[in-house]
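Appendix C reproduces, verbatim, an entry submitted by the partner laboratory led by Prof. M.T., so that reviewers can inspect both the input and the predicted structure.
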Amino acid sequence: MTIFPIGKALDFSVNKIAVHTFSMLFFLAAMSLLAAANASVEDRPNIIVIVADDLGWSDVGFHGNTDIDTHALDRLAAEGVQLDRFYATPICSPTRAALMTGRDPMRLGVAYGVIMPWHNFGVHPAETFMPQVFLGAGYQTAMVGKWHLGHAQQTYHPNERGFEHFYGHLHTEVGYYPPFANQGGRDFQLNGKPIDDQGYESFLLGDEVARYIKERDTSKPFFMYMPFIAPHTPLDAPEDLQEKYADLEDNRLPARSYNTDSSRRMSRMMFRPSARPMYAAVVDGMDQSIAKVLDTLDDEGIADNTIVLFFSDNGGAAYATGGADNVPLRGGKGETFEGGIRVVSVMRWPAKIDAGSKAESIMSVMDVFPTLAAAAGITAETTFELDGRNMLPAIVEGKMIQRDDYLFFASETPIKGRFNLTAFNDEWKLVQEMVQGLSSTDITNYLFRIQDDPNEYNNLAQEFPDQVSKMAEAIHYWRTLYPVAGLRNELVPPPGWRAPKDWAAYPQALSDLQDAPAGGMPPPYALPALDWQHGEAGRLIYNCEPYKLIGGGLCK
């Protein structure tokens, strides 16, 4: 038997206890960190972003509407915060591009028009999409509804932009009933495979979102994007909803916009029925679908820590065939008056947001990405600098966030060469209507003090010519950022173009494409000089701002 001296034995015992104690403390600390990490993921809010297509400012109950039942949207407003000065672009694809990237659509090349079926266009694959960031942070990601951000190559497909699950349509105007076709080609898919689900489109979307929530992995939060085609034309609704609104009178006041009001006059002169009753039925159907999603959150017991953000992609289509109402705002879809860009928006997050509140700071669709990332405690690491701002303090704490710099929006829809432009901040707003002919350009300026005159009655352009000049120059520079091959409005395809029989098979597979984006016709060494020479005509080099460099330098 080995006998240790008493001192040595004591030292050994103490050391052994110390090592054991340290090991236990290290183990407990590691487990605590792991638990904290897991808890941080599990405790992050679920997120649902719901986007309507062409909803009018005055077509919801919480804005005073009594013509159309919008119980679900009114519930969101009552239980959350109204984003009273939320701005989107005047038309569809630019808003969706800004939402997904947090970047200005002018930089992306998708500002003036929407992506048509015959376009070989999408948002640059180098741009970081919001669901990619959430997926990388441990979220489940899904999209249910209308994409409209590119379809010609797989690089533009939702499944390549961060959405693990995609159920819906690549295009707009696919109709509200099967076969859900655009230009004759079927457009309804599940992750790239054609599907033949039957029913009313808005209800199908609600059913799919509800199913996804019920069958989700409960150990992880989810990010859901739910863009409706409702209430976009061509309008259609179930018979019971059509009957419900069959006797609805069209009592809309003038939009104070030449194009919108003249289209209504022409429609009445031709004795065409008002689109208002069918429009109301479509809005009601969309609202019922949203109600199903809210009920599912309640049933799953996760409503309290789920952010539900709702907004329209642009102002209501108030022209004759659209049926929407934006009054008292001026104008509507396609225009840069308030009725075209200030849109219905609410956010509900019971765990953080006071019920029945209202945020009055200017917030744009570009702000959604950084705001939701902040709400989830995620650092949004992106390829390019975001143009949007984190507006969470304004939403959750009621802080007023000033807007001194300008927000810009544009549209060339529906007539090519007729641009609607705007720049605005908290104090001033300039609207430009620009008509380009083959040998002339006519510009009409409207200047408003937008806080004092939110409905744009008083044109101050002649009274403050220096302010007009200053803001017009800012718009001019902003437009120089557009890629030279960016979207322009094209209502018809190239002569003889044909659509595929099924759009799900249309995107070119990644395996059939080159590994990198094409560089174009000029040799690489010539691009900086050629880009500089293009000046105000636009950018050859992506994300280039040559005039911000000293002396008008070159981009690389």
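Confidence is low (pLDDT under 50) at residues 1-39. Additional entries are available on request from the coordinating office.
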